[in-house]
Amino acid sequence: MGPYKMSEFMVVGGWVVSEKVIRNGGIVIKENEIIDVGSADDLKRKYPGYEKLDAKGRIIIPGLINTHTHAAMSLLRGYADDLPLQTWLEDWIWPLEARLTDRDIELGAKLAAAESLLLGVTTINSMYHYFPEHNEAKAFAEIGIRGMIGHACFSWRKEKDKKLILDSVSKWHGRERGRLRVSIAPHAPYTVDPEYLRELEMLREELNEKYGEEMGEIIMCTHVAETKNEVKQIEETWRVKLPDHSIIKYLDRLGILSKSLLIAHAIYVSSSDMDIMARKGVKVSHNPVSNFKLAAGLCPVPEMIQKGITVSLGTDSAASNNSLDMFETMKFASLIHKFATSNPETLPAKEVFKMATLNGGIALGWRNLGAISKGYLADIVILNVKKPHVTPMYDVYSHLIYAVKATDVETVIVDGKVIVDEGKLLTVNVEKLIDEVALRMEEILAKIKEVRRRKSREKPS
Prior knowledge:
The chain is of the alpha/beta class and 461 residues long. The chain has three domains: 8-62 and 371-425, Roll (Urease, subunit C, domain 1), CATH 2.30.40; 64-363, Metal-dependent hydrolases (TIM Barrel), CATH 3.20.20.140; 429-461. The protein is built from 17 helices and 19 strands. The protein has helices at residues 40-46, 85-97, 102-118, 136-143, 158-172, 175-178, 194-215, 230-238, 247-254, 271-280, 288-293, 301-306, 326-341, 349-356, 358-363, 396-402, 430-458; strands at 8-12, 15-17, 21-23, 25-30, 33-39, 51-54, 58-62, 64-69, 121-128, 146-153, 180-186, 220-224, 261-265, 283-286, 311-313, 380-384, 409-414, 417-421, 424-425. The strands form four sheets. It has a seven-stranded mixed β-sheet with strand order 3-2-7-16-17-18-19, covered by helices on one side. A hairpin with a 2-residue loop joins strand 17 and strand 18. The longest helix has 29 residues, at 430-458. The protein is globular.
């Protein structure tokens, strides 16, 4: 079990990726906080009574932060690939989702949390359907990952949404020593009417007054400008006229834009939109793998960064990505923007690594998350780089983006506790979890096949 239950220990040796890379560095952890960072030799002298976790020959990094996913949709991984969007949704995804129970959602979230931790991801931000008894927060609490959940809100179920939001906040926001938080999560401007968007922002502000100072900030997360026809969808659905055909200007007019707003995708935004986003402090979650797999388009990340917008990274769900691998996401993000700009200097390795760590913490409103620094939360990943594909070592940041693989994750510490030791997850029987997921999906698919057979028989000949 290693130092799983120790409250005071240090990680020593290896390359510590802090404000700078420290060779033969060390990190001192007390409870769930990093209290010192520096040379391993200096720290050993300074803290003689602390237990030591030897990381010689390893790279020690902050845990990766996935700022946009739908955790429970891990149950739909590979279920319906390479299909047109409407066929994918109407004929495959929606019929299956309609048969998911609250226990299924908790099960899918457990699978996502287990996958994420084994891949070096210590924090995930999920938007999905919340149920009071079985939900994603309960799964995250059990598996040991740091997480934010948001109940996806739609205009067709307003009163139900509000009750579930209040239930989720009262039960889960700030729980597990602050490891769990809740967001307000309108699905998208084309599924949430303008008045309801205003109501949800007002509710967020009210809940922050009640819980925010003690339990952590409650932010808003939503999908924005993911597809080309989104402006038309909004205008036709809600009978409104968007200023300059801009979703960002529309949201600004509604009073939704703020430093507490995190938008996923932001593909179809103009330069003037980005100026507004920067001025309002809006954060962005860039989901390059999912966006390309669905042929949605490319978020203008380099221009956003140039304008001072905080851009983080997300995988989106395993239904639209097939993986929650943030190492893959980092490499993909760097490469596609180099190609798109015909400039190999675009999004250098160090910038992309910051997007997956420090920027992730800022995007989620966690001010002490995403770095190996004094006072930051002890979410740490140790990578075994004594392997041919990571040899030789000239530049640590370059290796982290272009050479290291998620399979190099050896140890994962979340909130000061070792959760993954020697590549094994300590909080759940992974094989049993996999078997449970496989059995449940067979049961759901059998029901769907029966429904399809029944519908086929009902069709007139």
